[in-house]
Design a protein that fits this description.
Number of strands: 12
Shape: globular
Order of helices and strands: EHEHEEEEHEEEEEHHE
């Protein structure tokens, strides 16, 4: 029998996020929002493949996936608020927040979006709903944000794009606050901490998707997590995803708004 590398490893508690409970009793949950059909924009063909693959990956890592599809920006806010308030976070050690939609530099498109100003979910809203003021059950726990969408109109020449541009090629695209903590002793903590975000592309650029195999970003993210989650921390996994794009210069995932103070190991199987 092969002994996992971490079985004899002395964990420095100040450097690694802990697993609080055994797999049988902890209640990891993940939120997955994917918009594929829009009133004014092209359908995101192939997105169903992304949903299937990312769901399989997260379930394999011990997360129960709450899936919601085809939402307006306001409906996305409502879903996030409900998820942030879920009691299962109290007995969880982390969460994943996955968003897939058309996108602009200003945020993610809801199903009624027409342009950069109508029905757009600001990215700040994601962090606001899960920060230490509004989601106390996840204080001190990793919150991993994965976003698959375009961030502008700068195009490459192949595949399909998560852009909101209507005239696409033949294959259509894709202030300081002190939180009141529920404990005997009130203490001052960061408003926003323990986040790690991987965006599918850099600002102002497209994210590429095949109508048959899904988005390149989700494909390569799943591949890297399946291959290396057993011995790599989260941010090293993110770097591996980024390096996997060295052969595809039209797109480069980027780590943003990362406020993790420790290393986060997923420890599949534990």
């Amino acid at each position: 029998m092969i002994t996992p590398w971490w079985s004899s490893w002395v964990w420095p508690p100040a450097r690694i996020y802990p697993i609080l409970l055994p797999r049988e009793t902890r209640t990891r949950r993940a939120l997955l929002i994917c918009n594929t059909e829009f009133e004014h924009l092209r359908q995101r063909e192939g997105a169903e493949v992304d949903v299937k693959e990312i769901t399989k990956l997260l379930e394999g890592l011990g997360y129960r996936v709450d899936f919601h599809g085809n939402l307006t920006s306001q409906e996305m806010v409502t879903v996030m608020k409900d998820f942030a308030g879920h009691k299962d976070h109290l007995t969880s050690d982390s969460t994943f927040l996955v968003f897939m939609s058309h996108g602009r530099r200003t945020g993610l498109c809801g199903t009624k979006s027409r342009d950069e100003t109508t029905d757009i979910l600001s990215l700040d809203t994601i962090y606001e709903n899960f920060n230490n003021k509004h989601c106390k059950a996840l204080i001190g726990k990793p919150k991993v944000v994965i976003i698959q969408s375009c961030r502008g109109d700068n195009r490459g020449a192949v595949l399909v794009s998560d852009s909101t541009i209507s005239e696409m090629p033949a294959l259509s695209s894709d202030s300081m606050n002190t939180p009141k903590l529920q404990c005997k002793k009130i203490r001052l903590i960061h408003l926003e901490s323990d986040f790690a975000t991987l965006y599918s592309s850099t600002p102002d650029t497209l994210s590429w998707r095949s109508p048959v195999t899904g988005s390149i970003f989700i494909q390569r993210l799943v591949e890297q997590f399946r291959s290396h989650a057993f011995n790599s921390d989260l941010q090293e996994l993110f770097r591996k995803v980024q390096r996997s794009f060295e052969d595809f210069p039209r797109q480069l995932p980027t780590q943003e708004r990362t406020t993790m103070l420790r290393k986060f190991y997923l420890f599949p199987g534990l």
